[in-house]
Amino acid sequence: MNSRSFILSALLLGPAAAAALGAASTGNPFYGDPPDRTHPWAIHDRNRPQPPRVEPGTPSTQAQPGRPPSDAIVLFDGTAASLAKWESDTKPGTPPEPSKWIVKDGAMECVPKSGYIRSKEQFGDCHLHVEWAAPVKVQGNSQGRGNSGIFLMGLAEVQVLDNYDNPTYADGFAASVYGIAPPLANALRPPGEYQSIDIVFRRPLYRDGKLIDPGYITVFCNGVLVQDHTPLEGPGGHLKRSVARPFPDRGPLKLQDHGNPVRFRNIWYRPLPPRAAEGGTDGALTPEATLAKRKEIAAGLRAAAEKLPAAGTARFLQLAESLVYENETATAARVEQLAAAYVASLKAHAGGAVEAKKGEAKSVQRALAYLARHGVVAPSYAPKSDLDAFTKARGWDDEKKK
Q: Would 60 be classed as within a structural domain?
């Protein structure tokens, strides 16, 4: 927000409202374009929730894993105790069993022929961070060298493979969405060194059996973008073409035993907020969801207005702001009544007393002009016309905006 809008918001609301709502630091209520049919928020909307604070983590080195961000849920931190967060990937209906993988030098290492493992924690859309290293001793070629896999929700696989100097089929390359999409680049370090993988995962969304969002995977390998919002075509797989289908809401992270002692460390994830299609309020919403959210915002503004001082303009302006989201009949009538009363009170002042009201009056005038400009009130709205005439008679409207 620029300095002009900061000052303007303070003028519009006054100290009491600004203190109650934090408005002086979060924006102006009569500023950017208003909500529309598919967007519940105005442009630069002060009522839009503030981003949560996340303390950044630290980068990893080959010798030392980095620290996860403060909101991360850690699945493996290099200790033997955190191996208890994992179990063998037993068949459905059979009791879970402890993982047979081992912890060695701060890493979780696959024991060949011990089977896949899965996290006990289940989750859906996420930012997932995994670091893995193929064996220092190079053995095998193509899919037989340093092979494993990262299975999001146990279904969609991001391939783990030593492809530093090892060609293979493109859709089975390291950092491919296995069987679906090759990586954009080979950004691997030599075998034995840790590869850092960050995955942004959005599962497919279905409603009433109909696909509404195919789901996507974005992958960074060692800081290099290698999957760019790649659409999911189902879970992928070996030999057979993947078929799109619904995913569950939650599932485990699985790591593959492909017969190679691949090591993993520093595994954590951050849950992602819901998309608009599943109840989120950022981006274009359905008209029905937009209307519901706008009603919710308006109700909150009306309730907050009642806690503001009755004297002055703070309560009136707050109620006027609520009309931007929902032009509710009773509130509209009350706003018109308060606006008319305000103009009448201005006219009752004389001489220097009315000049002292200049800043306040122009703030109300700007609010009414915003409502008229965006169709909330008619251009001929009586309180607006009266206030415009009042300010013009005193030459207050000659000041140019800066």
A: no
* One domain for residues 341 and 302: yes
Q: Which of 225, 260, 275 is the last residue of a domain?
A: 275
Task: Give the Cα separation of 188 and 192 in Å (integer).
Answer: 11
Q: Are residues 91 and 223 in the same domain?
A: yes
- Tokens 């030593």 locate to 162
The H-assigned helical ranges of 306-394 are 314-325, 329-348, 352-355, 358-373, 382-393
Reference 263, options 150, 135, 138, 144; nearest CA is 135
Q: Which amino acid is at 198?
A: D
Helix (H, G, I), strand (E, B) or coil at 291: helix
pLDDT digits (tens, 9 = 90+) for 163-215: 999 999 999 999 999 999 999 999 999 999 999 999 999 999 999 999 999 99
Let me know whether 285 and 270 are in one domain. Answer: no
Token pair, residue 96, equals: 């879970």
* Cα separation values, 128 from 75, 123, 173, 284, Å: 10, 11, 19, 26
